[in-house]
Design goal:
The protein has 158 residues and is of the alpha+beta class. Helices cover 23% and strands 35% of the residues. This is DUF192 domain-containing protein. Keywords: Signal. It comes from Treponema rectale.
């Protein structure tokens, strides 16, 4: 009898040791980096504008982590990835459960591509040409708001 109680106690302790850190890491993933937030203005071809409240991923480790483990990304928000130079870019959705759309943006702020990305996919989503920025938003947000390739993004100071 004592062995059964002891075995159950050990099983509970082991479960707690392995399960609690996993749950905590998912809950704290949003707080992994204290990213600055800025209003990113997109000017459409007709002259109208829309604003996205975007977290700014400036450092390499911030860009590499991106939206990993985020289950919710509210409409009207996103993440702007800022690179040091222009080149063809590849993104993927490793450990990213929320479907996203990405706009690849050149150094002049012109949207080169708008592409959709599937949750958890390791498939590379590649820009068609050299770009300096990428803006990720909830999937379909660009389409819903009439934002297209060749529209202009006003890059905030960072």
């Amino acid at each position: 009898m004592k062995n059964t109680v002891r075995a159950k106690f050990i099983a509970v302790i082991l479960t707690a040791v392995f399960l609690i850190p996993a749950v905590t890491s998912c809950e704290n993933s949003k707080k992994k980096f204290n990213l600055p937030v800025a209003d990113v203005v997109i000017q459409k071809a007709d002259g109208s504008t829309l604003t996205v409240k975007a977290e700014l991923a400036i450092k390499e480790e911030e860009r590499n982590y991106g939206f990993m483990n985020r289950k919710e990304i509210p409409d009207g928000t996103g993440m702007l990835f800022i690179f040091e130079n222009e080149e063809k870019r590849n993104f993927w959705m490793k450990n990213t459960p929320h479907p996203l759309s990405i706009a690849y943006i050149d150094a002049g702020g012109v949207i080169a591509d708008i592409l959709d990305m599937k949750p958890y996919s390791l498939a590379r989503v590649t820009s068609s040409r050299s770009v300096k920025y990428a803006l990720e938003v909830p999937q379909g947000w660009f389409t819903k708001n009439g934002i297209r390739e060749k529209d202009t993004v006003i890059i905030p100071e960072y």
